[in-house]
Input
Amino acid sequence: MLQINETAPDFTAETTEGTIHFHEWIGDGWAILFSHPKDFTPVCTTELGTMAKLKPEFDKRGVKIMGLSVDPVDDHRRWSKDIEETMGAAPNYPMVGDKDLKIAKLYGMLPASAGDSSAGRTPADNQTVRNVYVIGPDKKIKLILSYPMTTGRNFAEILRVIDSLQLTAKHAVATPADWKPGEDVIIAGSVSDEAAKAKFPQGWKAPKPYMRIVPQPTN
Output
């Protein structure tokens, strides 16, 4: 199983926007890869349409979007019409065709014993292909979320986590439970009090010695 801070496995695949080399496509920015067990499934239809509508928010954060579904690219194109009809927006980001299950296996979402073809497989057969990966500019995995087929993903939460990841990558801070942009943050435990005084000369609130709370850095 892949873990946070591992390098995201690279791959070359056919997508609705042509052949893509994953690491090359990510470039020097951030990326999100979210996977689906089957085309023409109801919950995934809502997710792909919602992501299309939210793409400007991901663009604003410099995050590229890539979807993956265990079916051929031609099926993705036909499905896109249904998504636009029902959700008001068609996918405006590449959708990977994984008809031979290679990427699902590469990312540990399906076992090696799953075979080498999507043909004849049901959504239930592929139910573990329901992950979200946020990948940083260093090509390392920063977040992994797994969802059951019956629960649609919360993309507002994914955006919130990306805000936290980008903030904490730039500054020596962590974000508390239910944090939202603009709220107070916590000085990272790896920063000594001496170093914190230089970084945060305004000081901090400390309800406990290990909880050093400061306003969110803005620079």
Residues 10 and 22 are 6 Å apart (CA to CA). The mean pLDDT is 97. The longest helix spans residues 42-60. The two ends are 37 Å apart (CA to CA).
